[in-house]
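Worked problem 6 (solution included).
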Amino acid sequence: MLLNPRKAFNLKNPIHLLALGFGTGLAPKAPGTAGTLVGIPFYLLAAPLHGMAYLGVVLLLFAAGVLICDQAARDAGVHDHPAIVWDEVVGFMLAMLLIPPHWGWILAGFLAFRFFDVLKPWPIGWLDRRVTGGLGIMLDDMLAGLYAAAVLHGARLLLA
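Solution. The predicted structure is:
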């Protein structure tokens, strides 16, 4: 049985604050979807960097996320507690790699990322079940982000 996230986490703890997407992970319904929304302002802040600089930011946030999510999961005593949504924030940012910061593309990226994150097609689900700790929490969402990025880039090619 999962601990009530309001008892398992303390938003005054900076690790928990980040892991829970500034509190969005406490949403009673669809915390992953709420957490993904936090990725939008992060994306908009980083989007002007373009290319490798943007990817560098995503990789730094991924590396930090491995540590953040690992600590939050250990504190809660539950691997990948649904309230831990930093992985959704960073996965969405990866989905938006080289995508123009227009609201139509942001909506498409949001929907594509959530689709792959929720359905977990192979090997996302396989990774989710087999890789543990902070790396496991982050890795399946990064792969969902890559799948979403491929769909978005395919759509851009078709619409060009």
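Discussion: The longest helix spans residues 133-159.
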